[in-house]
Amino acid sequence: MPCNAARALELLRLGTQKNDAAFREAQEEAIRHVVENRGRLLVVNSDFNKGGTWTGAVEQLEKFRFGPVFVRVGGQAGKGNAALVRKGALPWPEPTDASALEGAIVQATSTMAPELRQDSLPLMVEEPPARIADR
Question: Is 58 inside a domain boundary?
């Protein structure tokens, strides 16, 4: 799903709840990266049921499922982080180097359910669509 600069700015302003919010360095690219399904989502700190971080994480967990959602736990983690874990987010593994980070992402991604694909449309209402997994 493409995300142009105007949409990224709209999402930033919605998430921050500030109509005059402006991008910081690399923020537009980061938003576009996640929205366009090219990246993983890491929620560092989230309020409960408030703001763009919460909304984006919940949409990812419940609707999009493009990749794993990681959240910090303990310490200074926001109240929303525990709620996101209950919704299916993964506790951040606190990797100590790039290799550990890659391993955590690969492991989390490998446990995700494969996306179901529909190869054909049913001819009649009673006929269920054929799926690749059924063949």
Answer: yes
